[in-house]
Design goal:
CATH class of the largest domain: Alpha Beta
Radius of gyration: 21 Å
CATH superfamily of the largest domain: HUPs
Strand content: 5-15%
Number of strands: 5
Strand order of the largest sheet: 1-2-3
Number of domains: 2
Helix content: 40-55%
Distance between the termini: 34 Å
Mean pLDDT: 95
Oligomer: single chain
Order of helices and strands: EHEHEHHHHEHEHHHHH
CATH architecture of the largest domain: 3-Layer(aba) Sandwich
Largest sheet: 3 strands, parallel
Shape: globular
Low-confidence stretches: none
CATH topology of the largest domain: Rossmann fold
Bound molecules: tryptophanyl-5'AMP
Length: 334
């Protein structure tokens, strides 16, 4: 099966995963398990030290995230699922890739600018360097596809550039050492917006509390948040640039039902916003309810979660180490 993609994606360790991450990323991970050979997913705990954090909390948040992904349908038998810091090759490759990454590349990253604002001088070097670690995550596996939400576009563009430059600079044997991966964003739901401020993406750090549906929210909370979502003064359930709130709800319901925008627009052509929002809330409850229930079963067994992550790390190392051996060799080490 030479044509099957090698899929890689990463997710930050927090217990506060929201509907945007679920729709933009986690849904794609689950689907990728049957296409990828292999599909590799990683909880990126090394990335989380780029902002202030509590060491004692970090392990808990990794386990929260692992349990959410398993509850959502990741199956360790059908994918490689592990904790980033368990696989040292990520850190090593980060340093090696810095030879072909310029300061200017990192300086252009909009996420860094958005996250730091006027406090740039105080930001950690790790936050500035974050995209290089992300490139190493993917390139260490010679992954061909990177499923992410729209906000990671620029980071994936940079990792593609880093891979090209590496191959150009160290390709003396006429063979490419690294693979240039493809960005994969979902056709619908690549950018789920805050329900209260639909011109901003849904986010637990930059969004509103009421406008952010968490994967682990109970049914009552979900209904309240969707019910109070901002729409507009019109009446039509139609996706349009001047109707960001309604468009966002259409996308959410389309994903929950597994259909496209036109089907939702047709179904609600004669409905008011009240009935439409009720249907969206039903859809989200159906989408997330089973995940919350399964999470409650999985999360308490920390030993089992640790064992799953460790077994995944062993599989990951076995894939990444031969790549690192090639990288070290062409760079003149060892
Ligand atoms: P993170 O943990 O912030 O987000 C995880 C994934 O969720 C997507 N996402 C969204 N999709 C749609 N609508 C939204 N409102 C929304 N918010 C988040 C993100 O695009 C992401 O795919 N840097 C990455 C983690 C990472 C990574 C990697 C990803 C580290 N190494 C290697 C791919 C490959 C991040 O912070 O994701």
């Amino acid at each position: 099966m030479a044509d099957r993609p090698i899929i890689f994606s990463g997710i930050q360790p927090t217990g506060r995963k929201h509907l945007g991450i679920f729709i933009g990323a986690i849904r794609q991970y689950v689907e990728g398990q049957d296409r990828g050979e292999p599909a590799i997913y990683c909880v990126v705990d090394l990335h989380s030290i780029s902002v202030p954090y509590e060491p004692a909390d970090l392990r808990e948040r990794v386990l929260d995230t692992a349990a959410i992904l398993l509850a959502a349908g990741l199956d360790p038998e059908r994918c490689v699922f592990f904790r980033q810091s368990d696989v040292r090759q990520h850190s090593e490759l980060t340093w090696l890739l810095s030879a072909v990454t310029s300061h200017g590349d990192l300086d252009r990253m909009t996420q860094f600018k958005e996250k730091t604002g006027s406090a740039r001088e105080l930001a950690s070097a790790a936050l500035f360097y974050y995209p290089v670690l992300m490139a190493a995550d993917v390139l260490a596996y010679r992954a061909t596809e990177v499923p992410v939400g729209d906000d990671q576009r620029q980071h994936v563009e940079l990792m593609r550039e880093i891979a090209r430059r590496f191959n150009g600079r160290f390709g003396a044997e006429g063979e490419d050492t690294l693979v240039v991966p493809e960005l994969v964003v979902p056709a619908v739901g690549a950018r789920i917006m805050d329900l209260q401020e639909p011109e901003r993406k849904m986010s637990t750090t930059g969004g509103t509390e009421q406008g952010t549906v968490l994967v682990l929210d109970d049914e009552k909370t979900i209904r309240k948040k969707v019910g109070s979502a901002v729409t507009d003064s019109g009446r039509e359930v139609r996706a349009a640039a001047d109707k960001p709130g309604v468009t966002n709800l259409i996308d959410i319901l389309a994903v929950a039902r597994g259909v496209g925008r036109p089907e939702i627009e047709a179904e609600f052509a004669d409905a008011g916003y009240g009935d439409f929002k009720k249907a969206v809330a039903d859809g989200v409850v159906e989408l997330l309810g089973p995940v919350r229930e399964r999470y409650a079963e999985l999360r308490p067994d920390e030993a089992a979660l640790e064992a799953t992550l460790e077994a995944g790390a062993a599989k990951a190392r076995a894939i990444a180490e031969p790549v690192l051996e090639d990288v070290r060799r062409v760079m003149g080490f060892g």
